[in-house]
Design goal:
Helix content: 10-25%
Shape: globular
Strand content: 35-45%
Mean pLDDT: 97
Order of helices and strands: HEEHEEEE
Radius of gyration: 14 Å
Length: 141
Amino acid sequence: MKLDKEGIKNIIPQREPFLMIDEVEDFIPGESATAYKYVNEEEYYFKGHFPGNPIMPGVLIVESLAQTGAVAILSMEENKGKNALFGGIGKLRFKKQVVPGDTLKLEVKIIKRKGPIGIGEAIATVDGKVAVKGELTFAIV
């Protein structure tokens, strides 16, 4: 099922300027989500990171992945209206810089869940090349 920004906002609580995903290509509630971030030179963070050499901050790529995972977990009927917070970040590796003009493909698979806690396997790619890969632990509140 495809979602635009308004559809995304119906599931997760983040809003501009901190809504870090532009489109969801597909998601299976409680299992997985695939989303896209269209990295635009007008993004607020490029003014300072870094002038003359804009690079998307790694923490914001991780946040984009977390919001993608939140679509998967918060689209479950029992989690509607709740929030997913970071519980931890593991095995995270940064492999490629993300710059204006890139399309960031964000994929998260929920690999473990116990009560309100879970882990998502997360990977962000640009043109099929891994930019960031790791595991995100979340807590539903």
